C-alpha cells in the first residue's frame, strides 16, 4: 500500500554501497534525486534543459568513477558534492562558450571539486585520443586490441577468430599491434 519508498531519495550511504555493488536501482534513484536542483541552477544561469541533462550526467559519471576507484571520502552531503561538481562543469562550459558568466545564482552550499572535474576531463580527453588512435590503427589490429582489452577474449579465441595457426602467433600479432598503437597514441 505504501509506495512512498519507491521514489524516495536514497541515503548517501545507500548510494555509495549501491554504486560499489553495481545497483542499477540505486543509480536510477540517484539520477532522479538531485536532477531538479541542477536543472534549476542551470536554467537560472543561461542554460536550458538539454544543458542540465548533459551536465548532470557528467556529474553523476564523475561521482560514479570516484566511488569506483575507492578514493571517495564524503566530507559533505552527497547532494552538495553533486551540486558542486555540476556547478563547476557548467561554469567551465559557460566560460568556454563565453556566455555571460556575470552573477551566478546559487542555492546550495558549494564544495571544492576542481580536481575531480579536471581528472574526469583528462581521462575523457585520453579516451578520445585512444579512440582516435584505434581508428587510425586499421584492421586486423583494431579488432584484435578491442577483442582482447575491451571484450576480454582469450588469445585462443582471437587465434580462432583470425585464423592464426596457434595462440602464440596471435599473441605476437597483438604485441605488434600494441606497439603500433603506442606509436600513434604518443605521437605529438
Automatic annotation (TrEMBL):
GO molecular function (one): sigma factor activity
Entry keywords, A to Z: DNA-binding, Sigma factor, Transcription, Transcription regulation
Ranges for domain RNA polymerase sigma-70 region: 30-94
Example of a GO biological process term: DNA-templated transcription initiation
Alphabetical list of Pfam families matching this protein: Sigma70_r2 (PF04542)
Family label: Belongs to the sigma-70 factor family. ECF subfamily.
Protein's name according to its UniProt entry: RNA polymerase sigma factor, sigma-70 family
Species per Swiss-Prot/TrEMBL record: Pedobacter suwonensis
Amino acid at each position: 500500500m505504501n509506495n512512498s519508498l519507491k521514489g524516495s531519495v536514497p541515503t548517501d550511504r545507500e548510494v555509495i554501497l549501491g554504486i560499489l555493488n553495481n545497483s542499477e536501482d540505486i543509480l536510477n534513484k540517484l539520477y532522479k534525486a538531485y536532477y531538479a536542483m541542477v536543472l534549476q541552477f542551470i536554467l537560472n544561469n543561461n542554460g536550458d534543459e538539454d544543458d542540465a541533462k548533459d551536465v548532470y550526467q557528467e556529474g553523476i559519471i564523475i561521482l560514479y568513477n570516484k566511488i569506483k576507484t575507492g578514493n571517495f571520502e564524503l566530507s559533505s552531503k552527497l547532494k552538495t558534492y553533486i551540486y558542486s561538481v555540476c556547478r563547476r562543469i557548467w561554469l567551465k562550459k559557460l566560460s568556454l562558450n563565453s556566455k555571460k558568466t556575470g552573477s551566478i545564482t546559487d542555492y546550495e552550499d558549494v564544495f571544492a571539486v576542481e580536481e575531480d572535474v579536471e581528472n574526469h576531463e583528462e581521462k575523457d580527453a585520453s579516451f578520445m585520443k585512444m579512440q582516435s588512435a584505434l581508428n587510425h590503427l586499421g584492421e586486423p589490429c583494431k579488432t584484435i586490441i578491442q577483442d582482447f582489452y575491451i571484450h576480454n577474449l582469450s588469445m585462443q579465441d582471437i587465434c580462432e577468430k583470425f585464423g592464426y595457426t596457434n595462440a602464440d602467433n596471435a599473441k605476437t600479432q597483438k604485441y605488434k599491434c600494441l606497439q603500433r598503437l603506442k606509436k600513434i597514441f604518443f605521437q605529438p
